Amino acid sequence: MIKRKQFIPLLLSGITGAFVLACSPSQPSGNNTASNSNSTTNTVENSKGIPIGVVLAQTSNAALLGQEQVIGAKMAEQYFNQQGGINGTPIKLALQDGGGDEQGAINAFNTLITQQKVVGILGPSLSQQAFAADPIAERAKVPVLGPSNTAKGVPQIGDYIARVSAPVAVVAPNAVKAALKINPDIKKVAVFYAQNDAFSKSETETFQQTVKDLNLDLVTVQKFQTTDTDFQNQATAAINLNPDLIIISGLAADGGNLIKQLRQLGYQGLIIGGNGLNTSNIFSVCQKECDGVIIAQAYSPEIDNPINKTFRETYAAQNKKEPPQFTAQAFAGVQVFVDALKAVDQKNKLDSLSLEQLREQLNQAILSGKYETVLGNISFTPEGEVVQEKFYVAQIKMDETGKNGKFTYLK
């Protein structure tokens, strides 16, 4: 049972610093070491805590989602250590900024595996990065949990690769079905996607197939780059075809600007944003034009279990808003590592295992475990795909100032 009265006041004192660090691009995350980087032994250096690597986008165009993930990971570190860590031994997150490109993730993975000798890695933020960096962990036999890698094919990278983020093929169609409930007269659909991002390319395939499966008319497919800021040509081309619904697969910065420009050019129909837009940080990008955007969710603050109630209350008390999906998924990822490490320790004390043995047994424990998390009950298939019970859809509601908003969950 979770001791909520003891947990909340103690955790809140630690979250303020975590939030500031997570939201400050000037902080050098790579200096947060969790183990003796000069160790020459092949055992876990856990005198300061069992090192779990975390590779998230704290800079670049992916930072709007990565900063939310850092908050979730740090909340989990604080919480599970207060609960006793791994049967009395604390965990220690080794944070690395993966940036928004493949090389950033590759560098971070190499540092964590060879220098900081982590037992496993939570990350990276983007699927595009996962396809580049995960094979490094696979070759080193280091367990990886993707907190937001939803593109097709991620768990198939290798035996040591899993994810707590449900695949886009499962989540995305719910948003289109929700849009049809709001407006049953939808016929014509325009699709936009970031062609330089593996996740967006995977997600748009699902969206386009869903449109066809529902016998809707896909009138145009417009491409852009995640680094673009001017979408006038693509937006005008789509609006001229009079779509009833527009679907966008991209990241928060580019996607938010695209939404803003669509509205400014006169588009008044429904808009669906993909998972890359699923962050409250988008509110400052598209502001009042964010209002009404529909986004499918793998998390709801109203999930009714003890750990989510505590997580929700703690996050809301500090941030004056409900916790977002990316924060919840990062929290859940750390929890899976913690629960699986406990299972390993109960069979063989962690300090009796070599690092190689621990990584191998940890991977086996992750895949065979069942977990009650802030996402609800989850487990994994043998190849590392998450099995999650429920999914949700939310619609953005902005206030009269156009600066503050929230995700309103649809029934």
From TrEMBL:
Domain Leucine-binding protein per the UniProt entry, residue ranges? 50-400
SUPFAM superfamilies, per the entry: Periplasmic binding protein-like I
State the CDD domains in the record: PBP1_ABC_HAAT-like
Q: Does the keyword Cytoplasm apply?
A: no
Q: Which InterPro entries match?
A: BCAA_transport (IPR051010), Leu-bd (IPR028081), Peripla_BP_I (IPR028082)
Pfam families attached here? Peripla_BP_6
Tell whether Iron is among the UniProt keywords.
no
Question: Per UniProt, which keywords does this protein have?
Answer: Signal
In the UniProt record, the signal sequence range is 1-22
Instruction: Note the PANTHER family from the entry.
Output: LEUCINE-SPECIFIC-BINDING PROTEIN (PTHR30483), PERIPLASMIC BINDING PROTEIN OF ABC TRANSPORTER FOR NATURAL AMINO ACIDS (PTHR30483:SF6)
Protein family according to the UniProt entry: Belongs to the leucine-binding protein family.
What is the name listed in the Swiss-Prot or TrEMBL entry for this protein? Leucine-binding protein domain-containing protein
| Protein species of origin | Planktothrix agardhii (strain NIVA-CYA 126/8)
